[in-house]
Amino acid sequence: MYEKIVILDFGSQTTQLIGRRLRELNVYCEIVPYNKFPADDLSVKGVILSGSPFSVTDPDAFKPDLSSVRGKYPLLGICYGAQYLAYLSGGKVEKGDSREYGRAALTPCDKNDLLLRGVLAKSRVWMSHGDTITQIPSGFRIVAVTGDVPVAVYKIDGEPSWGVQFHPEVFHTEEGTLILDNFLNICGMKKDWTPASFIESAVASLKEQLSNERVILALSGGVDSSVTAMLLNRAIGKNLTCIFVDHGLLRKNEFTNVLRDYEHLGLNVIGVNAAEHFYRQLAGVSDPEQKRKIIGKGFIDIFEEEARKLDNIKWLGQGTIYPDIIESLSITGMVIKSHHNVGGLPDKMRLKLVEPLRPLFKDEVRSVGRELGMMPHLINRHPFPGPGLGIRVLGDITPEKVRILQDADDIYIRMLHEWNLYNNVWQAAAILLPVRSVGVMGDERTYENTVALRAVTSTDAMTADWAHLPYEFLAKVSSEIINKVRGVNRVVYDISSKPPATIEWE
Q1: How far is residue 180 from each of residues 6, 119, 210, 489, measured CA to CA in Å?
Q2: Residue 431 contacts residue 447 (beta carbons within 8 Å)
Q3: Where are the alpha helices (DSSP H) in 426-489?
Q4: Measured between alpha carbons, how far is 295 from 283 in angstroms, rounded to an integer?
Q5: pLDDT band at 333 (very low <50, low <70, confident <90, very high)
Q6: DSSP SS3 for 135
Q7: Do 426 and 464 form a contact (C-beta atoms < 8 A)?
Q8: Which residues pair with 125 in a beta bridge?
Q9: Distance between start and end Cα atoms, the chain
Q10: Is the Cα dihedral 314, 320, 324, 330 positive or negative?
């Protein structure tokens, strides 16, 4: 069992970034709801309190009992976490005249403070808060200030507890990684969380968990399911049967190409062409959430049918990763979008669930895949949603609309490769809009479809910025699509970031 840092999530948008930074420092961490601290977990070596959209003075703010944490583990409160620690001990936290948002210069007051060891004077930090600690409690000691914040960092005397009113996890805090690393040193972490160590641990755990029982796994052609298959194959070999379903919503020629790749990997794969089944179920459906659920149910139906052909299947393997879980469940109960690989399947199919990638972020999955020796073009593929083009054809789905989008998407992705731009982008997609517009092709008036191009840069998909692709490239792609894809006469480019937009349109 890995030693770990537990991050108590108070609902901040950057909670996942805290986890990402710790993983980059080769430390395993888990994010749990603010009131679900695993007090009986002996592998916990330290605790971080995240930020929050609430003020500590709000009646609905999250205010857990921290008696099982304070003084028992090294503790770091970030923004709301810092304010809550001070508030809980009798300090004053008050709303500022205006919300402080942006960079500030940090000045350490105590050069010997362990959390700020090596942090330079005037180091830039990122502030994002409306409240300020105006009076610290007895036993609290200020160890850093900024020009506008008199309590930027404090230490609690007699216990390894600190609070910072800025966000060390964001890129804009220049020495945020150093501060987090200092905290890990305070916790005595070994920093042995690596792809190789994860594979060794995961394979051993899978062998023990699965024994000689058989597993059925859904393959999508994407990184997550492919790495899951490789891990399971290393652990149980031929006891793994993979099923790759063509729901008619894959990229152009993807079904054939992916089956060929899996054959090279030595996986036991059954290919199922189920396009007609999915098109029937999706006929006339426009609501994106309903489309996701229909596609998810369609997978269940196909798996049930295929599983009945196999003997003694006990387990269902899935490529669920950490962001899937986070986006499907939140401490506020809000679901951003459903993921058909995060629940429902085992109950329906009466199979036990095995999800070896559940603790990993996307880039960690890629690192594990590289360590497993997978082919670069499989590892470096952009994320592709489980519902496929079903959520990239906006509105109702027809075979003709899918054909149009497949052709446009194929040109877009091929040209990203040709221009050596593909690996500079986290995810790229063509979107078929439910919009027709007037155009002129030759001497004829047209009234045809609009395709939107989407490309984003990101590190973990929790936040993303639109990719600043060259104008010359976009012009060439637009011309190629309009000239070669029957049914399209207009191409637009999406320049929205996440948040407020999501990466996918549906």
Answers
A1: 13, 11, 37, 51
A2: no
A3: 471-484
A4: 12
A5: very low
A6: strand
A7: yes
A8: 104
A9: 39
A10: positive
Nearest to 295 by CA among 344, 353, 333: 344
Q: How confident is the model at residue 340 (pLDDT cuts 50, 70, 90)?
A: very low
Distance CA 463, CA 469 (A): 18
Least confident of 84-93, 111-120, 405-414, 434-443: 434-443
Longest dimension (CA), the chain: 83
54-58's contacts with Cβ under 8 Å and 24+ in sequence apart are 54/10, 54/11, 54/80, 55/93, 55/95, 55/130, 55/131, 56/80, 56/83, 56/84, 56/87, 56/93, 56/131, 57/87, 57/93, 57/94, 57/95, 57/131
pLDDT digits (tens, 9 = 90+) for 271-328: 999 999 999 999 999 999 999 999 988 887 887 788 788 888 889 898 888 777 665 5
Beta carbons of 410 and 417 less than 8 angstroms apart: no
What is the rounded CA–CA span in Å between residue 31 and residue 45?
A: 14
Residue 21's H or E segment, with its range, is helix 15-24
334: pLDDT strictly greater than 80 = no
> Active-site residue numbers?
79, 167, 169
| Length of the chain as a residue count | 506
The whole-angstrom separation of Cα 325 and Cα 289 is 17
Q: Where are the beta strands (DSSP E) in 34-184?
A: 44-49, 75-78, 92-108, 123-135, 140-145, 153-156, 161-164
Is-cis flag, bond preceding 168, omega within 30? no
Beta strands in 136-268 (DSSP E): 140-145, 153-156, 161-164, 214-219, 240-246
Task: Compute the average pLDDT of residues 463-485.
Answer: 96
Instruction: List CB contacts of 71: < 8 A, sequence separation 6 or more.
Output: 158, 159, 161
Percent share of the chain, pLDDT over 70: 92
Looking at residue 178, its amino acid is L
Strand order in the sheet with 269-273: 269-273, 240-246, 214-219, 313-317, 352-354
User: Do 243 and 303 meet the contact criterion of CB atoms below 8 Å apart?
Assistant: yes
Taking the alpha carbons of 288, 291, 292, 293 in that order, is the dihedral positive or negative?
Answer: positive
Distance of alpha carbon 46 from alpha carbon 25, whole angstroms: 15
**Cα 462 to the center of its chain, rounded Å:** 5
What is the sign of the dihedral through the CA atoms of 408, 411, 416 and 419? negative
Cα–Cα separations (whole angstroms), residue 35 to 8, 31, 62, 330: 8, 11, 8, 13
Helix (H), strand (E) at residue 289: helix 288-307
